[in-house]
Amino acid sequence: MATAPIPFFTDNNVPDSVGHSIVAAGHELTRLRDVMPHNSEDKTVAAACVLSGLVLVSFDNDFNSIAEKLSVSQAAARRLHRIDMQCHEPQGATRIREAMSLIEHEWMHAKILGIPLLVQLGNNFIRIRR
Fold this sequence. Notes:
Number of helices: 6
Helix content: 40-55%
Low-confidence stretches: none
Oligomer: single chain
Mean pLDDT: 88
Order of helices and strands: EHEHHEHHEHEE
């Protein structure tokens, strides 16, 4: 595990099993449903994650163009840390478990360099965007 727990935030469309995998790996988890209305707009969710320094985990492809949607500055939009789940939802918990050591490494790298974390988890791939 990374030296400090990573603060994750699961979007409304993320199954609880993904959150359980995150917590089992020793990280912090905030679920949208516990802190915001379930129908919160993507730009509100993204802005809250940026302002709180949370890593957004979502199956929502709308976040791919979040920079245009955010009601915050472009600089803030570039600080959105994200795990983009592109796999089938039933595979989500397994895929995040399999990728956790890589996510932890990339989180430390992102923090050192001051860049956003972006990891895409597909059914058969893991992509890191820098």
